[in-house]
Amino acid sequence: MASSGAAVPFWRAAGMTYISYSNICTSLVRSCLKEPHRSNAANREKVHFAISKWSNGKPESPTIRSDSATE
Amino acid sequence: MAMAALRREGRLLLISPVSYNSPVARSMINHDNELGLMGARAASTQAVRSRMKSVKNIQKITKAMKMVASSKLRGVQNKTINSRGLWQPFTALLGDAPSVDVKKNVIVVITSDKGLCGGINSTSAKVSKFLYKLTSGPEKDTKFVVLGDKGKVLLVREFKNSIELTVSGLQKIPLNYTQISVLADDILKNVEYDALRIVYNKFQSVMSFLPSVSTILSPETAEKESEAGGILGELDSYEIEGGETKAEILQNLAEFQFSCLLYNSAMENACSELGARMSSMDNSSKNAGEMLDRLTLSYNRTRQASITTELSEIISGAAALTG
């Protein structure tokens, strides 16, 4: 398994960052829970914000990221 | 909703301009509003009375806002304390290098969406402007990522062309790590950086907030710094499991470090915002109370003066008739 730096893990080769990889793993673990703990954990997973990219000093229209599960 | 009520009361205050501090003005008001017996008494006190009512309403609103902020603060403070375990290992492992000198800097400014929270947003904006001047120079490139509407308004005038991303609507749901990590992911995908600096207000107590900067180095910069020695140089002495190369580890670490530090900074800023709102609403309630006292005094004086005037007129009229 030891490599000289050429091989990358499958998720990075697919374009994901470590953060998105760990978020997916987290949601997998959260979905293993049983009922009362499951809805408590689902509360900790809510995402909602509006992000807008600026170019040349002008904002473009914001895209709203609102999913209740991780990406 | 509280904001709309406050605006309404403010308008009521503006419409009834009463200068209640000078005795000359007061007697002028009495003479000017001579609309007959009932009119003379009612008109001038009416103005003061409506002003008192709106000040009292404002006081109620600010007291309520203070209660809301203090109850929210308790919850967020607990979360912040629990989240310390996320970033402390990073500081122990990788150190914090605020004075690192790199070509591409990205300044992430955390501010609030709503106002009425004292001076925390303006101090964050001041610190980030200062950082910008510090890190700019020939061949150096500094960009801003602004979280929160208030920061956007404060920075847009001077730094329109350096803003890369703005984010708003973060506080609609209570802060959690997943939301911040998705945001961190978006930021990482959209900007290139050698060093990320997060500007936020650290929460020390309800009255005092410390503007602070945390620095995260990109993996390449971290590699360079580790060759220079210091805490980062010790990285080689750790055993790495998993058979990946050091560059791979550094990249994973850098991303995770950004996400954890952003989470911690966002929580601390939220605590500071709530604390600042609590203390500023407290001050406004106190000021509103004092204003109410002064208005009550002047109201009583006006009322008594007009009663005295009426009495003296009646008496002098009666004396003229009999004598």
UniProtKB/TrEMBL annotation, chain A:
One Gene Ontology CC term in the entry: proton-transporting ATP synthase complex
GO molecular function: proton-transporting ATP synthase activity, rotational mechanism
One GO BP annotation of this record: proton motive force-driven mitochondrial ATP synthesis
Main location: mitochondrion
Superkingdom of this protein's organism: Eukaryota
Subcellular location: Mitochondrion inner membrane
Keywords: ATP synthesis, CF(1), Hydrogen ion transport, Ion transport, Membrane, Mitochondrion, Mitochondrion inner membrane, Transport
Pfam families: ATP-synt_Eps
Region (Disordered): 52-71
Protein family per UniProt: Belongs to the eukaryotic ATPase epsilon family.
Function: Mitochondrial membrane ATP synthase (F(1)F(0) ATP synthase or Complex V) produces ATP from ADP in the presence of a proton gradient across the membrane which is generated by electron transport complexes of the respiratory chain. F-type ATPases consist of two structural domains, F(1) - containing the extramembraneous catalytic core, and F(0) - containing the membrane proton channel, linked together by a central stalk and a peripheral stalk. During catalysis, ATP synthesis in the catalytic domain of F(1) is coupled via a rotary mechanism of the central stalk subunits to proton translocation.
Quaternary context: F-type ATPases have 2 components, CF(1) - the catalytic core - and CF(0) - the membrane proton channel. CF(1) has five subunits: alpha(3), beta(3), gamma(1), delta(1), epsilon(1). CF(0) has three main subunits: a, b and c.
Protein name: ATP synthase subunit epsilon, mitochondrial
Organism: Zingiber officinale
TrEMBL record, chain B:
CDD domains: F1-ATPase_gamma (cd12151)
Pfam families the UniProt entry points to: ATP-synt
InterPro entries per UniProt: ATP_synth_F1_gsu, ATP_synth_F1_gsu_CS
One MF annotation (Gene Ontology) recorded for this entry: proton-transporting ATP synthase activity, rotational mechanism
An annotated GO cellular component: proton-transporting ATP synthase complex
The protein's role, per its UniProt record: Mitochondrial membrane ATP synthase (F(1)F(0) ATP synthase or Complex V) produces ATP from ADP in the presence of a proton gradient across the membrane which is generated by electron transport complexes of the respiratory chain. F-type ATPases consist of two structural domains, F(1) - containing the extramembraneous catalytic core, and F(0) - containing the membrane proton channel, linked together by a central stalk and a peripheral stalk. During catalysis, ATP synthesis in the catalytic domain of F(1) is coupled via a rotary mechanism of the central stalk subunits to proton translocation.
Protein name, UniProt field: F-ATPase gamma subunit
Protein species of origin: Zingiber officinale (Ginger)
